[in-house]
Amino acid sequence: MTNDRLILLLKVCISAGVCLILLGIYLHNFNETVEAMGVKGIIISALCVALGMVLSLPTKMYLTFLLMRREANKQDGAKS
Q: 38 in helix, strand or coil?
């Protein structure tokens, strides 16, 4: 898998994670059906937020590492 394809996959994971986090917030605050479910509704909204964080945080760290390495390579190339 090339770096460009990997970065695209990681960006998709970040987007899906953010969408799941937003869905969990929406379900918890603005949806009467989930509120009427009681504890099960809270679990559903918390699960959406948790899965969103699982998808988004490690990919952000990896993308940051790739960008830092790319910047270091550019600076090394400029010095030579």
A: coil
